[in-house]
Amino acid sequence: METQNKNQLATGSTSEEKSQGRWYVIHTQNGYEAKVKEALEQRIKSLGVEDKIFEVVIPIREVVVVRKGKKSKAKERVFPGYVLVRMILDDDSWLVVRTTEGVTGFVGAGLKPTPISEKEVEAIMKFVQQEQPKFKAKFSVGEAVKITEGPFADFLGTIEKIDEEKGKVRVLVSIFDRETPVELDFLQVAKL
Questions:
Q1: Over the chain, what HEC string results?
Q2: How high is the pLDDT of residue 29?
Q3: Among 4, 10, 96, 124, which one is least packed by beta carbons within 10 Å?
């Protein structure tokens, strides 16, 4: 009977009640964020606390990576090892989250979980939903590279600048004993 009442509360919760929830950050084992999200969502339903824990989010953005000379889209965790949870914090909801497999704790001052501000949540969500995919650079400034395509193929150079937005690098190439900057796509250079 008690479980039935909890379920009635969960399905009968209003948008007004949901707006009362605050965002908290939980720490997980790195690489287990998706498993923690799935386990937590399952526990929320089975324990009937949908009226206290409303949303579980792993901030992920889409990036373009270059692997073996080919561009591909990949998903990247913005904060590896962390998951956002929108909830009304009380003893029951804290216990459900805290005892979920893979959760190592809440982020906060001392023993008390500290909610993050709506402004921070909005900034995170805006960052995650940026339209243009980002390139994931595997290069660093000052690194020696070999040009693999184009008119400077087989030349060696040093990376002067990286533009992850456009997926371009500026490489200093020695031509006629002078350092000449050449702008190339990530696909046109390889690490030595």
A1: CHHHHHHHHHHCCCHHHHCCCEEEEEEECCCCHHHHHHHHHHHHHHCCCCCCEEEEECCEEEEEEEECCEEEEEEEECCCCEEEEEECCCHHHHHHHHCCCCEEEECCCCCCCCCECHHHHHHHHHHHCCCCCEEECCCCCCCEEEECCCCCCCCEEEEEEEECCCCEEEEEEEECCEEEEEEEEHHHEEEC
A2: 87
A3: 4
* Distance (Å) of CA 126 to CA 10, 57, 75, 119, 132: 29, 14, 16, 10, 12
pLDDT digits (tens, 9 = 90+) for 119-167: 998 888 888 887 655 666 678 899 999 988 888 888 999 999 998 877 8
Please provide the size of the chain in residues.
192
Closest CA to 95 of 152, 130, 47: 47
> What is the per-residue pLDDT for 66?
66
Per-residue pLDDT, averaged over 108-127, amounts to 86
User: ∠ CA(25), CA(38), CA(41), 5° rounding?
Assistant: 75
C-alpha–C-alpha distance, residues 7 and 179, integer Å: 70
Report the pLDDT averaged over residues 116-121: 90
